Amino acid sequence: MTILDTAPAPSANRPSPRARRGWSPRRRRDFLVFLAFAAPNLLLIAVFTYLPLINNIYYSTLDWTLGSAEATVVGLGNYLTFFTSADAPRVLGTTALFTACTVGGSMLLGLLVALALNAKVRGTTFARAAVFAPYVLSGVGVGLVWLFIFDPGYGVLSWILRAFGATSPEWINDPQLALVMVIVVYVWKNLGYCAVVFLAGLQSLPGDVMEAAALDGAGGVRRFLAISLPLLSPTTFFLLITTMLSSLQAFDLIRIMTPLGNGTSTLIYEAYLQAFGAYNRAGYSAAISVVLFAILLLVTVLQLRFVEKKVHYA
Amino acid sequence: MSTLTENRAFTRKNFAATLAGGYVPLILATLVVFLPLLWMVLSSFKQPGEIVTTELKFLPESLNLDNYREAMTTVPFGQFFLNSVIVTAVGSTIKVTLAILTAYALVFVDFPYKNAVFVLILVALMVPAQVSILPNYILIAGLGGKNTLWGIILPGLGTAFGTFLLRQHFLTLPGSILEAAELDGAGHWRRLWRIVVPVSVPSIATVGLVTVVSEWNDYIWPLIITDRPESMTLPVGLTLLQNSESNGAGWGILMAGAVLVILPVLVIFAMLQRYIVAGLTQGSVTG
């Protein structure tokens, strides 16, 4: 999230950090008040956010069946197994494909919807809320609804295909089609988020530049490509990062639509299946989680490196 | 863009252009969202014979609640609903309270290591819960939290998101209103609840709503930490229902279940979408 650098100037209540030596009663009291107010939250974050990161790395060095009392230290063995087996190309390939298609799909369609929402007609407020709605709905509920739509026997899609004389494929049983199906639904659920963010970007574009270009005879498409799109680059970059991070963590839809992960095993889903599916391979699952975390970290670091250069405040 | 189209005369050509360029894409986008949800609601009233047919039927023959009754008896849906309400209410209340307290401390209380604390919260904001699932499972299961509501609630209570959002808001409050209260002898506790909270209701509502929605929808953690129906939340219970209704005739029942999960959030969203959209797209709009 690029919310990092938005903090306004510190308010008057913060004394300069230099003048902090001699501990007046007031300062001592404030110290205790701070601890009393912040400690519960900080403790919870430490135990359930930071500690698991360390534990995950530790577990990833074990050959350990979940629930078993015994574990053998295997060092980097789990990583070796992952990267030298057929698992790595399969899982990493699925993750890359899923992420690329969902990020590209939701951003592209989101931009188109944002342009539609930016039109000066009635009802845009309602439409904006409507397209955003799927983003806040339960992934499990949404996944079931779409699973019914894709049902080869009685789903709406099969009726439509039949009307054109085609037969519905077995979406769930075909690994490639299962991935396509999950991607479509994921894009449906998330494009509203991209649309609303793009819309905010479009509405902050300088109107006078647009008018000048229109007076010079630039058409709508030309104005969009030559002016809007380049000026939107900070928004586009922000969305690229945030949607990439959430696609890499997509779980609910994949779990409910393809319980066996046949063709849809992304890193997060493979980590889940390995630990909590049939195998109970805790150490191996932890290793996959660490790989996922490393990728997420890389994306975040990239964001922090580039965000300052890319974002130009209008 | 407004001035480009606004002042033109209303001609027939113009009307067609507005229709094609303005309304048609808008209606199309709205339909793409609504039709699947409409289909869910319609199907939830259909009997198995209306779904397993040789001819597509759009409307259910009657609005009877058989599927809802069936869903409730196949699996303990009432229990799931109650569990979801408890988890969401307790979890959100504690999370929002913790966020308010931490954000107040970060902004208004003097503390030497404040910046370090803030960095810890920022980094936590970027650590995805997804990668902590296995260690947290081992921790909570070890403490006896499997199949308990506290086991579902506890690991998610620490809040970096809410703290961050409220801190940003508290920084914009004028320090003068608090100084006056301090001179009157009001301590931090009173300043927080009598002044800071009352003037921050919209921001707190935003954080609260986003928290409620994500607690309600939360899936991966409750899925892992529960395997007995008594302690499942709605999304997990829906998975259980899915397993027992795997043939074509069960779709009506599954859609009834989906309605029960989706509808509460949809209603809250319809009423308060302004806050929810703002809370979820923060960051982007300000950056």
Order of helices and strands of chain B, N to C?
HHHHHHHHHHHHHHH
Q: Which residues of chain A form runs of ≥5 with pLDDT under 50?
A: 1-12, 310-314
Radius of gyration of chain B: 25 Å
Topology pattern of chain A, helix = H, strand = E: HEEHHHHHHHHHHHH
In the CATH scheme, the class of the domain at 93-270 and 288-310 in chain A would be: Mainly Alpha
Oligomer: heterodimer
Low-pLDDT parts of chain B are: 1-7
Helical coverage of chain B, percent range: over 70%
The assigned CATH architecture of the largest domain in chain B is Orthogonal Bundle
Q: CATH H level of the domain at 93-270 and 288-310 in chain A: which superfamily? A: MetI-like
Output the CATH homologous superfamily of the largest domain in chain B. Answer: MetI-like
Tell me about this structure:
The complex is a heterodimer of chains A (314) and B (287). With 314 residues, chain A is mainly alpha-helical. Chain A has a domain at 93-270 and 288-310: MetI-like fold (Orthogonal Bundle), CATH 1.10.3720. Chain A has 13 helices and two strands; from the N terminus they run αββαααααααααααα. Chain A has helices spanning 25-59, 77-84, 87-117, 124-136, 139-149, 156-163, 175-203, 207-215, 220-231, 233-248, 252-257, 267-276, 282-310; strands spanning 62-64, 71-73. In chain A, strands 1-2 form a two-stranded antiparallel ribbon. The longest helix of chain A has 35 residues, at 25-59. Chain A is globular, with a radius of gyration of 25 Å. The model of chain A is unreliable at 1-12 and 310-314 (pLDDT under 50). With 287 residues, chain B is mainly alpha-helical. Chain B folds into two domains: 2-43; 66-282, MetI-like fold (Orthogonal Bundle). Chain B is 72% helix and 0% strand. Chain B contains 15 helices and no strands. Chain B has helices spanning 2-6, 12-43, 48-51, 66-74, 77-108, 114-126, 133-142, 149-153, 160-170, 175-183, 188-199, 201-217, 220-225, 234-244, 251-281. Chain B is globular. Chains A and B meet through α1, α3, α4, α5 and α7 of A and α1, α2, α5, α6 and α7 of B.
